[in-house]
Design a protein that fits this description.
By secondary structure, the chain is an alpha+beta fold. Helix content is 43%, strand content 13%. The protein folds into three domains: 103 residues, no CATH class; 34 residues; 199 residues, Glutaredoxin, CATH 3.40.30.
Length: 362
């Protein structure tokens, strides 16, 4: 049961709450809350109560606003006098510590519950954390994109600054390989000897660069054949063996030139030839079936002995590419003064034409 203030006052004075008239405690509470005097008491008694003052000029039982230490001391006094624990500073109260009336809750002497407000807890994501996340993500994307471009540029630069072999003084580009042509026939580097060859690495699902480069390549070799009377065999090597099978390559190369040879193979075979020619290639997104492949955009001119002569980048147009090839062929022919070597080249050329034509017909 929660004791009321009038009951507490009655206990201190030794008089009943209703002034001996037998009124209920509930009526006393209501009259005290509304008028400041207990119901049932006579007016003179109430006036006497109002006039009783303590040494400080305040009515007995009036508790002025106090600080935390004063509230603690007052609460201790109430606990000592009533023998009951007053609620902590959480707005709680116990029996004998407060009374409830029409005006609300009244607390015991010396106890003032603190006014508390529920702290608004912030969400897990703030504008600052979101901004930090965006900045970090942008930085990571920039870093990986920069690293990929740096690696590609390093490979291109390495192709430009070709190293010379220590023994024969030749560029360390090219080497043995074994692949399948567009008709499923095994082709090695030995099968291509005897002709001038122009090799380009790409993939059939390339949206724009590979078709443009292949178109430029086949147009240039026609110009060379017309101006110099020399045949240069165009060769396309796929760096996407997972999607570029024999049939896919066959359908692709026939769109460009009847002499264009398409080569593909297993992932290991493609890796071998790409490493031999210092070609960079990498999937952009392996989680998707329509991925693209970053790769070197370079054409390699190989002489009839399948030795590297010169590379041509994307900056060459058809005329520039054709003129560059013609110049290199003339230089090489000037170095080969032996007529027998020239006849041998022609002989090999005829053999390679037969290989290519037979493959087309098969």
């Amino acid at each position: 049961m929660i004791s009321t203030l009038p009951q507490t006052m009655a206990a201190e004075r030794g008089t009943p709450v209703d002034g001996g008239k037998g009124l209920s405690s509930k009526d006393s509470q209501r009259d005290y809350a509304e008028n400041g005097t207990p119901t049932g008491g006579d007016d003179s008694h109430a006036d006497e109560k109002r006039r009783e003052m303590d040494g400080t000029g305040n009515e007995r039982g009036y508790v002025p606003p106090c600080n935390a230490s004063d509230a603690t001391a007052a609460r201790g006094a109430v606990e000592s006098s009533t023998g009951k624990v007053v609620g902590e500073d959480r707005g709680e109260f116990s029996q004998g510590s407060a009374s409830s009336g029409a005006g609300g809750k009244a607390y015991s002497e010396g106890f003032r519950p603190p006014t508390t407000a529920r702290a608004v807890r912030g969400g897990p994501v703030t504008w600052a954390s979101l901004a930090l996340l965006v900045i970090t993500g942008a930085g990571l994307l920039y870093y990986f994109d920069h690293e990929k471009k740096r690696r590609l540029e390093a490979i291109r630069q390495g192709a430009a600054d070709v190293t010379l072999g220590p023994a024969v003084g030749k560029a360390a580009i090219g080497g043995p390989f074994k692949l399948l042509n567009q008709n499923g026939r095994v082709i090695t580097d030995e099968d291509l000897k005897g002709n001038w060859n122009l090799i380009y690495f790409g993939f059939t699902h390339c949206p724009d660069i590979c078709p443009d480069e292949l178109q430029k390549m086949v147009q240039a070799i026609d110009v060379v054949d017309k101006k110099l009377g020399k045949e240069v065999v165009p060769i396309f090597i796929s760096v996407d063996p997972e999607r570029d099978g024999v049939e896919q390559v066959r359908e692709y190369v026939k769109e460009f030139h009847p002499k264009l040879i398409g080569l593909t193979g297993s992932a290991d075979d493609v890796r071998v030839v790409a490493r031999a020619y210092r070609v960079y290639y990498m999937k952009t997104d392996e989680t998707r079936s329509d991925y693209l492949v970053d790769h070197s955009i370079i054409m390699y001119l190989m002489d009839p002995n399948m030795e590297f002569v010169k590379f041509f980048g994307k900056n060459y147009d058809v005329d520039g590419l054709a003129d560059g090839i013609i110049e290199e062929i003339k230089i090489k022919d000037g170095e080969n003064s032996s007529l027998k070597n020239g006849k041998s080249i022609n002989g090999h050329t005829t053999g390679n034409k037969s290989i290519n034509t037979g493959s087309q017909a098969a």
